[in-house]
Amino acid sequence: MGELLILALIFFFIAAIYSAAGFGGGSSYLATLSLLSIPFENMRMTALICNVIVVCSSVFLFNKYQYLHWKRIIPLIVFSIPMAFLGGQLLIQERFFFLLLAISLLLASMAMMFDKRTSVVKIPKYGNAFIGGGIGFLSGVVGIGGGIFLSPLLHLGRWGKPKTIAATSAIFILVNSIAGILGQYATYGFNIDLNRLIVLILGVFLGGQIGVRLTIFRFNPILVRRITAIVILIISLRLLFKYL
Question: Is the pTM of this model over 0.70?
Answer without folding.
Answer: yes
